[in-house]
Amino acid sequence: MSTLSINVAEKSNSGRLEVTLGLDGNLDNSTVGSLEAKLTPTLAAKPVQVIFDLAKLKFVTSAGIRLFFLAVKQQKQNGGQVSFVHLQPQIKEVFAIMGEIPDIRIFKDQAELDAYLLARQRTYNP
Length: 126
Prior knowledge:
The protein is of the alpha/beta class.
């Protein structure tokens, strides 16, 4: 039986909500429901940024990938973004395949993501 622990951390910056979901364990058919239960209200809050911290994710199946894609799609519809940080080598292999797909952003770590977001904000001109 697989297990998955999910740590949800919210941060508000100038009224803009950013949510990080730290995943620890295996994301497969038996655990995807627990992530979906945490992710659904998170996405309903329409955060500007959803970050999946995958430092402790050991395994992901197509069920998990499907949920990641649903998050990307919903965030895009709401004007937000989804990012992924701290990928382990085996997860990075899966994401290398996904990297060919538009709207998926993968970062080495939180610092690289923060630098990217800062640069984007500096060039923002409505």
